[in-house]
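Re: the 286-residue chain
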Amino acid sequence: MNAATDPRIFAVPELCFATVPSGVRIPYVATGSGEALLFVHGSLCDYRYWNSQTEALSQHFSCYSVSLSHYWPGDEAGALGAFSWQLHVAELAEFIRAMKLGAVHLVGHSRGACVAFNLARSYPELVKTLTLADPAGPLQTGPTPPAPLSSSDEAVRARVAELIGTGELDAGLELFVDSVSMPGIWRKSPVSFRSMAIANAATLPKQFRDPLPAYTRAGAAELRCRTLLLAGERSPRMYRDNVEQLAGWMAHVDKRTMAGASHGMNVTHAAAFNRLLHAFLGKQAA
């Protein structure tokens, strides 16, 4: 995020809830008409993270933005299960079917991009196109699994969890957000974004206990849908490496780098993000 972000994009649109067959109650907002465009948020976020996309792209698509279980405005009692990327994949599949959306244009950011990637792998019939923005998760480029997190990264996570556990949310979130974006980003973020992150702070320690699966050549090769890979020019190296490697592994790929953007690219560079996404989806429709 940065100081130039328009805080109006975090205004709360009309909120609905969908109860899927497993019993999970999924918060979502829906705007527009046309083919279904489904947005999946990442760490510390919820359906509000995509407001600048749904506002612009609802002129051309039926836009759906969800909050995954355990994220605001859901509650722990309504989560009906442990915090898990596998469960998030399954509940999104249930949501698409329960809402009778057909095959969707699926867009995910960061952790949400990993969830979207695995949804497209496990339920290919539900995904028409896939867009991954700064996809999070480890890379496995050879026969052996990727190395665990470095001791310094583990120390950061432990400190973040400790701060959040003792109620020092601002300090813990500053440490985490700056580590996955750029130093100083938290303090430059608008109050609206910081409020959203604080509302979802309790998910971070859970997320740390739920490591994402590694991207592999074989897994990427399973995808047959057209895919847009987006990297922020100033995003941390791990995200840019993921985009570069996935682009070499996947068929039917359009890879783009967003000039001047870091990890929160769809918020800080919303107009450019929306143009790239609309152009990609327009090619699909042509």
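The longest helix spans residues 270-285.
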